[in-house]
From TrEMBL:
PANTHER family: ROK (REPRESSOR, ORF, KINASE) FAMILY, SUGAR KINASE. This is ROK family protein. It comes from the Bacteria. Coiled coil: none annotated. Belongs to the ROK (NagC/XylR) family.
Amino acid sequence: MNYLVFDVGGSAIKYSLMNDSLEMIEKGSEKTPKDSLENFKKVIKSIYEKYKDNIDGIAMSLPGLINRKTNKMQIPGALEYNFGVDILSELKSVTTDRFTIENDAKCAALCEVTYGSLKGTSVGAVCIIGTGIGGGVTIGDNVLTGSNGFAGEFSYFSTNWRDYEGFNSKWAVENSSFTLISMVAKEKGLEAKELDGIKVFEFCNNGDEAALKALSEYCDILAMGLWNIQATVDPEKIAIGGGISRQPILMEYINKSLDKVYSKMPIPIPRVQIVNCKFFNDSNLIGALANYKKVYK
């Protein structure tokens, strides 16, 4: 059986024709329309038309939060025109009724618990570091959605409980990949626009003291977020994803920061295991398909 699977991002719509063995028979991408829902629907429809005679249905990973009670997009993420829209019904209207949509980070979590680093865990969590902090909590082989679909939205964790103004002191702001770039730039006396993630990790991997100081401070904040996840759901493992998670030195420094957290506790707290996500950039596609197969068993 073949399926058309989408991973929608703020800049690109990745898609793949996939089968039950998770083989990506064909892959492609289109620019994500920035202007309107109608143009977004046109792109999805045009891709569907190429494959409609050869698929069982469509699975999609999408940024934002679809409220489980209203079926409407409550948090649109990068696609602001989706706010308040029953996006599943809108897309079904131009494609097929056999269509599933899940939040992108929850797709990553479902991928990892079904096929990847969290497979076999009773409780797990995924933390995706990107423009924010995507997340998901897994119970058995399911992803916890919560009563409204908001469970696992780690971006909204507070890093300072006395500061409740909007996105001030929220984990998405404190620990995005862009924050690390800014912290390294500041330590080195540079403008953030002069750096990117590749350059930052070149500095770190070459032992640059200023860059490593920034990485250590960044991971200290990250470790407290991971600690809060552990205190909330007590996972066996937390799988770290996102582009920067491919850097072994990041995982090394995360564990150094966690060492400090655990060593300062006056009682022995069970330590969570930190692992990499297995599927990296393909996790959203694979998780979207896993979600489809749960719905259409």
